[in-house]
């Protein structure tokens, strides 16, 4: 294990995650990683979309996003929504999550995680 971990595409509280899985993935990772010394975390939902699991049931809203887990205190966190082409529904909203972490030495380090679009043209816009 490392001391810092960034994750993407994590399911957040929604009908899908609560009904089918009992808890959302950020909680799952938090619980699993705490046994390995990861006491701190920050997370942010980035995209929301409707899913259909069964043609006979109502659609449900699903949210996915980012998380950073740390063995050291996270003293500040923020996020930024990345550029998005609203004319293309397949280009879901993306974000970058930042955590300011205080190491044992007292030094501060910035940790970032993101999940760029699957489409190259969208990625080119997002990284500007």
Automatic annotation (TrEMBL):
It comes from the Eukaryota. InterPro entries: Endo/exonu/phosph_ase_sf. This is Uncharacterized protein. It comes from Percolomonas cosmopolitus. The lineage of its organism: Eukaryota, Discoba, Heterolobosea, Tetramitia, Eutetramitia.
């Amino acid at each position: 294990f490392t001391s810092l971990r960034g994750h993407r595409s994590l399911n957040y509280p929604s009908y899908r995650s609560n009904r089918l899985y009992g808890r959302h993935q950020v909680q799952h990772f938090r619980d699993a990683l705490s046994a390995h010394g990861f006491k701190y975390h920050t997370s942010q939902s980035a995209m929301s979309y409707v899913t259909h699991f069964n043609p006979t049931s109502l659609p449900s809203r699903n949210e996915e996003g980012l998380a950073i887990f740390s063995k050291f205190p996270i003293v500040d966190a923020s996020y930024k929504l990345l550029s998005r082409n609203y004319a293309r529904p397949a280009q879901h909203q993306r974000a970058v999550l930042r955590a300011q972490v205080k190491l044992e030495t007292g030094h501060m380090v910035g940790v970032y995680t993101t999940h760029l679009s699957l489409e190259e043209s969208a990625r080119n816009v997002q990284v500007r």
